Amino acid sequence: MVVRVRGRALPHGEYVDLYADGDRWTTDPVRNVEAVVEGWLLPGLVDAHTHPGVEVPGEPLDDLMLRDHLRQHVDAGVTAIRSPGLAGEPPDWFGADPDLPRAWHAGPWLAQHGQFFDGWGRRVDHDEMAAVASAQAVRTGWVKIIGDWSSAGVPVPVDVLTGVVDAVHAVGGRVAVHTQQAGGGAAAVAAGVDSVEHGMLLEPELLTRMAEQGTALTPTLHGLQQVLPEVLRRDDSPGKRWFVEGARVHASLVAAAAEAGVRVLAGTDSLPHGRIMDEVRALAAAGMRPHDALAAASWDARAYLGLPGLEPGAPADAVVYAEDPRTDLDQLDHPIAVVLRGRLVRGGH
Q1: 156-183: per-residue pLDDT in tens?
Q2: Which of 8, 62, 1, 5 is nearest to 317 (CA)?
């Protein structure tokens, strides 16, 4: 099927008329067009923090569930995902199936002994972490470190994280770090990691350094906000106080990060899959401009993954809306068409 898309394209808002020539956009007419889609065009959405293929922490990766979760992403207009941590080695079709999103992943989570969910990830000694991380990055391009865990776990020391970053960067990979403690966040930023995942309780004075060194923030804001009411109902404990303190100020941290020039990436980290629009709305409600909240889930996130936007030669992904989603973020709930790898996988005519 040859697909043609035309309309106002974000981020610039100018009119474009593109043909899918295989998996590449071109302005040159392609014969035998079978589908023409018109509207407001985004170059495909991105969920930069999602763990498909499992629903209960500690359970193994389920291939059928993985495929179902990825279909839910596509239905929402998500044409690329980053999975910073998977419950198992993905099947060969992961990231390559023409009907499912492009995918980047970090393999199993790497954690300190005694931390993270039992049955998931790999526990690694400090003196082995750089070598293990480097080997993972050679295989998949990314590695994910559990920099701290819950309220009481001691964070990975900054010198260990620095060694990981140096080793992974030496082989051309990138490092994502889970952190929800101030100390863990400070260590991640000092080590120069590529992305901070969650970043709860991150000290605001670190944001300028993050922007300067190119460390992205994936705040998973909506997911944390969803959990907060349930945590508030729990009996008082140090863990409850830790989570409530961080979750209550997380929106203001996101706004400050955007203001400081930190690259913010939209990621859900929650069930059900295919709800990236909830994170975009949460980012906007926190104080990001709707344009920038959309960028975090589309063109800017794609650039972070090395994917150009709606231009000749770029991968042929697009999600199409009836109206400008910047003026009405609820448009994200109603894509009229999704084009993935040059194929119309939802809607159109």
Answers
A1: 999 999 999 999 999 999 999 999 999 9
A2: 5
Count other C-beta atoms under 10 Å from residue 30's C-beta.
15
Going by their DSSP bridges, the two strands 78-83 and 102-105 should be labelled as: parallel
pLDDT score for 102: 98
**Domains identified in the chain and CATH numbers:** 2-42+309-347 (2.30.40.10), 45-304 (3.20.20.140)
Q: Mean pLDDT in the chain?
A: 97
Query: Would you call 180 helix, strand, or coil by DSSP?
Result: coil
Confidence of residue 348 (pLDDT cuts 50, 70, 90): low
CA-CA distance, 137 to 173, in Å (whole number)?
5
- Of the candidates 274, 270, 269, 268, which has an alpha carbon nearest to the alpha carbon of residue 75? 274
Cβ-contact 18, 313 below 8 angstroms: no
Residues 52-75 have pLDDT tens digits of 999 999 999 999 999 999 999 999
DSSP 47-61: ESS--TT-SSTTPPP
